[in-house]
Amino acid sequence: MENIIKKVKDGLGGKIKNWEEKNPGRIYITIDKENIRETARFIFEDCKARFIILTGIDTPLGYENLYHFDFDSIGTVVTVKTLIPKSAPEIESIATIIPGANFIEREVYDMLGIKFIGHPDPRRLLLSDDWPEGVHPLRRDFK
């Protein structure tokens, strides 16, 4: 585990704004949203972690995306956290790097309205094509 932690810390360097080891097997890394593609590529390709899922959350401070990666061989999950301002809800897509992110990015767009720039297939996934534009069911202001 120490080798993986060192590789991630060394590889991401100054991109890491915060590093938290909440308990054995769970690490949370906070980065700026501008660094998500490079960070995801590094963890997925260079460190050989498995992409699990993306979680989008509407918080009072903005939209938080949590990208969960599993280092199966050591039983450790690394979650990469980004904060996206509500005034500009967009972030670069990782789906061209990690094809498994395709559907979850589409779901997060439908439910929270976060646009994934450069997504290869930005069609709606869960909501119908005639769903009102700008209305997203998992936003705090949804009525």
From TrEMBL:
It catalyses: a quinone + NADH + 5 H(+)(in) = a quinol + NAD(+) + 4 H(+)(out). SUPFAM superfamilies: Nqo5-like (SSF143243). InterPro entries: NADH_quin_OxRdtase_su_C/D-like, NADH_UbQ_OxRdtase_30kDa_su, NADH_UbQ_OxRdtase_CS. NDH-1 shuttles electrons from NADH, via FMN and iron-sulfur (Fe-S) centers, to quinones in the respiratory chain. Keywords: NAD, Quinone, Translocase, Transport. Its EC number is 7.1.1.-. This is NADH-quinone oxidoreductase. Belongs to the complex I 30 kDa subunit family. It comes from the Bacteria. PANTHER family: NADH DEHYDROGENASE [UBIQUINONE] IRON-SULFUR PROTEIN 3, MITOCHONDRIAL, NADH DEHYDROGENASE UBIQUINONE IRON-SULFUR PROTEIN 3. Pfam families: Complex1_30kDa (PF00329). Residues 29-143 form the NADH:ubiquinone oxidoreductase 30kDa subunit domain. One of its GO terms (molecular function) is NADH dehydrogenase (ubiquinone) activity.
